[in-house]
Write a structure and sequence with these properties.
Elements (H helix, E strand, L loop, with lengths): L1 H14 L3 E5 L11 H19 L4 E8 L5 E8 L5 H7 L17
Parallel strand pairs: 1-2
Antiparallel strand pairs: 2-3
Length: 107
C-alpha cells in the first residue's frame, strides 16, 4: 500500500525535482490497520512534503518495525527549504472543515 501511495505522487516529485525514496521491507509487511485511513494519511503527507522541500530535496517513505516491535511509518523530508516551521506545515490540514461536530481534518 505504501509503495502504491508513492507511485501516486511520483509524477509530482519528478516535476518538482524531488527524489522520492522508498525504504520498504522486502516482501512487504502485514499490519492490522484500516486500509482507507492509512492510504488517506499517506497520500496527504507525501505531496505536502514534496511541496515543502523544493527542488533538489528528498522525501523518504520508510515502513519498518520500531524498537518496541511496533509497525512504524516514517515520512521525512530533507532539502534546502525545509525548516522546522515549514515542516510543521506538512501536518496542517488542507481543507477548511471545522474540527468540531465530529469532523476530522487530515492534511
Amino acid at each position: 500500500m505504501i509503495d502504491k501511495c508513492c507511485e501516486t505522487v511520483d509524477s509530482l516529485a519528478h516535476a518538482r525535482h524531488v527524489e522520492l525514496i522508498r525504504e520498504l521491507p522486502a516482501g512487504g509487511m502485514m499490519v492490522r490497520a484500516e486500509h482507507g485511513r492509512m492510504r488517506q494519511v499517506t497520500v496527504a503527507l507525501l505531496p505536502n512534503c514534496i511541496a515543502l522541500v523544493g527542488g533538489g530535496g528528498r522525501v523518504h517513505a520508510q515502513f519498518s518495525m520500531s524498537a518496541q516491535a511496533q509497525p512504524m511509518l516514517l515520512i521525512r523530508a530533507t532539502g534546502s527549504t525545509v525548516s522546522p516551521e515549514r515542516m510543521a506545515l506538512a501536518l496542517e490540514p488542507l481543507d477548511g472543515l471545522p474540527t468540531d461536530h465530529g469532523a476530522e481534518r487530515l492534511g
